[in-house]
Amino acid sequence: MPEPIYLDHAATTPVREEVFAAMQPFFGPRFGNPSSVHRWGRDARTALDEARERVARCLGASPDEVVFTSCGTEADNMALIGVWRARHGEGRRGAASTPIEHKAVLGALHQIGKEGGDERLIAVDANGLVDPASFDEQVRDDVAVCSVMWVNNEIGTLQDIYALASLAKSRGVVFHTDAVQAFGKVEVDASKTPFDLLSLSGHKIGAPKGIGALYLRRGTPMEALMFGGSQDRGRRPGTENVAMAVGLAVAAELAVAERAEEWSRLEKLRDRFESALLARVPDAIFHGKGAPRAPHISNVSVPGTESESLLIALDLRGIACSAGSACQSGSVNPSHVLEAIDVRADLANAALRMSFGSLSDDASVDRVVEVFATLAQKARRLATA
Ligand code: PLP
To answer: How confident is the model over 233-264, as pLDDT tens digits?
Structure first.
């Protein structure tokens, strides 16, 4: 069998060698607890402080504006629930977001609802772009926090975060963006774009799973979600994961350094995939294609096929991709993102997400098109036989 092909970089990415190498000493001699006063502790503290400075630099931020978290999900939860809890007493019971967010945001929004908050959903158009009239209507001066993802993880839609953050802030609304799929693709700079909070996840950019970060603009009100020691200024108690913080810093620096080149490389790969597939399957439909998109995601439906069986058939031929997002896999429910952009149920059930990254090249894309087109045509013949 030919080499397996990984086209699921939006689910997770391999740990980069540089990241692994930088982390290793912290599983060995540099094992100290950053809160200890002795030399081992001081060494760990220095490493942690350096990692925070490096992540902050990658975000155009100050080190005190970076909170390390266990993952992107935790950062999203902290941003929404933490800000809402700190502000709802000011007559701001609302929390607003879009229906195409990752479940980490939608779950946090739902929790706010359970705590007595007013959940508001901002409508999106057929490509997943925020509808300005709906934003204007939902994000009013009784809203504590608004969250809009920078890049959608299923269809790649890229929002105008500058405009949305500016409008929210003009109404005194704290603005959060989930940049888990955006970081390393778009320029994320807190000194240029007026978001108040921003979430990152290490495993989407070549660091291990289990590390994330929350950018928190100085002065933004937020209650901690956990209680305990005074680590991270009390914002995130618990002994810090120094190795992972160092890994995230290295991965973030590499992602920023390679960003512009990686954007055009991935864009060419995605366009190659989409145009070659269209040449073979002219009625293939690419979701979100009518809006600005990040270059690493292509979400396609071939009418008359079914994604679960295609996924299995592709896997048997060594090709890994996904139906919707990774956390959706194994579920028979159609993607909430495709549902929110009004994709017909049969097309939503046919959708596959191919996501490109460090392991992708022209040859792998060409083989995927060949195998996918053949399988899809066969599935259609069987369905109509
Ligand atoms: N937000 C988005 C847009 C994502 O794609 C993901 C992961 O798939 C997350 C949040 C959650 O990140 P993590 O897996 O680090 O919890």
So the answer is: 999 999 999 999 999 999 999 999 999 999 99
Give which of 309, 327, 300, 201 is closest to 252, Cα–Cα. 201
| Ligand 1 centroid distance, CA of 74 (Å) | 9
Q: Which atom of ligand 1 is nearest to the CA of 11?
A: 8
Q: Is 327 a catalytic residue?
A: yes
Q: Are 154 and 339 in contact (CB under 8 A)?
A: no
Q: Which of 58, 71, 146, 327 is catalytic?
A: 327
For the stretch 253-312, pLDDT in tens is 999 999 999 999 999 999 999 999 999 999 999 999 999 999 999 999 999 999 999 999
Name the residue at shortest CA distance from atom 13 of ligand 1: 72
Asked whether the whole model's pTM tops 0.90, one would answer yes
Alpha carbon of 180 to ligand 1 centroid (Å): 6
Distance in angstroms (rounded) separating the CA atoms of residues 212 and 94: 26
Ligand 1: residues within 6 Å at CB? 71-73, 76, 102, 104, 149, 153, 178, 180-181, 201, 203, 212, 325-326
Could you tell me the two tokens for 241? 């994961």
